[in-house]
Amino acid sequence: MENNKMCVIGLGYIGLPTAAVFANQGWQVTGVDVNSGVVDMLNKGKVHIKEIGLEKVLSKVIEKGSFSAKMVPEKADVFIIAVPTPHNSDLTADLNILKNAIRSIIPVIEKGNKIIVESTIPPRTMSDIVTPIIEESGFDTGKDIFLAYCPERVLPGRILIELFKNNRIVGGTNTLAAKEAADVYRTFVEGKVIETSAESAEMAKLMENTFRDVNIALANELTKISEALDINALEVISLANEHPRVNIHQPGPGVGGHCLAVDPYFIIEKNPENAKVIAESREVNESMPAFVVDQVKKLVSKTSKIAVFGLAYKGNIDDIRESPALKIVNHLYSEGYKVQAYDPYVKQEQVQFQLYNYEKALRDADVMLILTDHNEFKNIDWEETKCLMKQVNVLDTKNCVENVTENINYYNFGNLYELKAIKTSSPIY
Ligand SMILES: NC(=O)c1ccc[n+]([C@@H]2O[C@H](COP(=O)([O-])OP(=O)(O)OC[C@H]3O[C@@H](n4cnc5c(N)ncnc54)[C@H](O)[C@@H]3O)[C@@H](O)[C@H]2O)c1
């Protein structure tokens, strides 16, 4: 393969698998990261992130000499930028890391190079921020450099499969750049590689996650309305979804993760006057932790013990970034509850409060509060639970328990109205 030198900037969840896959497909890849610990580990064939199959591919490409990790960029034909794009405290995108990464390749880029950004960015970032940095260094992005945005939509845990199978959107800052960048992915992607403008690609990436956030907000809003009107929200969703063209999402304790809970703000910041539904949806989803705590308050008094089951933002993973469960735990503590949190995937060093094992979390608890749909929570051993808990109240915000039995007090988002009766009749309030 001619012109097959590639430099991947940022060797995290996205950059490292991407670099390893290209190296395995015949590209000569230099991976660059500012973290010297990461660079040292990778050159020894060890991987610093959890991803199925990644260490095996990495060892293979290091052995055959097609991948090496460095701390500074080198000359290449193609540059892929996969650095983080966190948000500031006012929820606008912090593009400083991206700008530094682009500036770091300026000394080594040459005419004819392709520069592809994969980091998630607000709309118009390629034209308003990236293009000027390249042009200030004397290159004409209209003819010297091919500049494109190619968003990533892989699912952690399936990255090595999805890098091959998923359809890719490649947005060029002009049509030739789109084609040149798309051809890079066509060297191994089995899905469709669709050429478009950088602006459309930027917005499409954000709208994928925003679509899901807005739809979850709709389900959460339905939950609140149903609770007020004594209606079973979960039954309503399943009935409405009998319509061939309706797919109401499932409600829950809020929305977490580094994509769904973050990306909509990248749209809002660029056009707040019009991003009304998107902003309201964020507010609805952000209000859910307080709504969950309100349900707990109806169920038991503030000195009670709450066995929190699940801290990760979604099932069967250890990721707690932006997790609503953390907000709920902190809120419960601030209200005076005793919290005994358990998550089979999350380790003590990831959180600021004490974690318990399964048995200790349930011991003398008044409520089992399920916040994540881990497989481990689907079939609870009720006999053991009854022995451990002071009273068997279960509030399942993910509607994930499959073996509900009659002699427990089980609540999910379908029968929250029953808690109102408890509040009004209970002597503890
Ligand atoms: N992880 C995902 O599932 C996912 C999915 C879609 C999109 N994205 C987007 O992809 C981008 C990267 O995300 P990630 O999860 O891979 O991040 P990450 O934090 O796992 O990795 C980023 C790496 O970049 C390195 N880095 C920072 N500045 C650098 C610089 N100037 N030069 C070289 N290396 C630098 C960091 O040390 C880190 O190792 C983000 O914009 C993210 O929103 C991530």
- Tell me what portion of residues adopts beta-strand conformation: 5-15%
The biggest beta sheet is recorded as: 8 strands, mixed
| Distance separating the two termini | 74 Å
Assembly level: single chain
> Helices and strands: which structural class?
alpha/beta
Q: Could you say which small molecules are bound to this protein?
A: nicotinamide-adenine-dinucleotide
Shape: elongated
Mean pLDDT: 95
- Rg from alpha-carbon coordinates: 25 Å
| Total of helices | 15
Low-pLDDT segments: 424-429
Task: Give a written overview of the molecule.
Helix content is 40%, strand content 14%. It is α/β, with parallel strands linked by helices. It starts with a strand and ends with a helix. Residues 424-429 have low confidence and may be disordered. Residues 9-15, 32-35, 38, 82-85, 97, 100-101, 104, 118-120, 152, 156, 259 line the site of nicotinamide-adenine-dinucleotide. Nicotinamide-adenine-dinucleotide (NAD) is lined by residues 9-15, 32-35, 38, 82-85, 97, 100-101, 104, 118-120, 152, 156, 259.
